[in-house]
Amino acid sequence: MVTIKQVSEAELEDILPLFNAYRLFYGQFINESAALDFLKDRLTKKESVIFLSYNNKVPVGFTQLYPTFSSVSLQSSLILNDLFVHKSYRNKGIAKKLLEAAKRYCGTNNYKGLALETATDNPAQYLYEKEGWQKDVHCFHYFWTAK
Fold first, then answer.
1. N-acetyltransferase domain location, by residue (predicted)?
2. Which domains does the chain have, with CATH numbers?
3. Exposed e or buried b for every residue in 48-82, given b needs 16+ CB within 10 A?
């Protein structure tokens, strides 16, 4: 049975292997203590909201949301920055349930909406569009990297 839980500090050890696998997937090195500190800081400072998916009490996926603000709309919204499901549990509806949890949280807490960014070749685009997410074709996104 798949369940979704909002993460507190008590679940940090549950999410850590998934978070490390997610970072490894994106070409980063595993640094368990730094990853744990990062997640703990986000939660204790209330800088993110994390939902964790369990399949029969085994942690199998997560999504992390970060708040942002719009001066134009005078509203806050959320950035769905991370979405990851362990490869053994993909294509079983877990990512969809995590997206649904994020949508519920957004609506319940009066956010304007959710934004996400994904690679142009990410097959998850199909899921996002199927679940009502709309591709932004009206603007470009730029990023500057501090050296």
1. 2-147
2. 2-130 (3.40.630.30)
3. bbbbbbbbeeebbbbbbbeeeeeeeeeeebbebeb
Contact 122, 112 (CB under 8 A): no
How confident is the model over 132-142, as pLDDT tens digits?
Answer: 888 888 888 88
Residues 104, 106: Cα–Cα separation, whole Å: 5
Q: What is the average per-residue pLDDT within 18-27? A: 94
**Beta-strand pair 58-70/2-6:** unpaired
Q: Using the 8-state DSSP alphabet, how is residue 27 labeled?
A: T
Instruction: Please give the distance of CA 35 from its chain centroid, rounded to a whole number.
Output: 15
Q: CA dist 81 to 58, 67, 70, 108, 116, Å? A: 23, 10, 17, 19, 6
- Is residue 119 pLDDT above 90, yes or no? no
Instruction: Match 């996926």 to its residue by tokens.
Output: 61
pLDDT of the residue at 68? 96
Q: What value does the mean pLDDT of the chain take?
A: 93
For tokens 């800081």, name the residue: 41
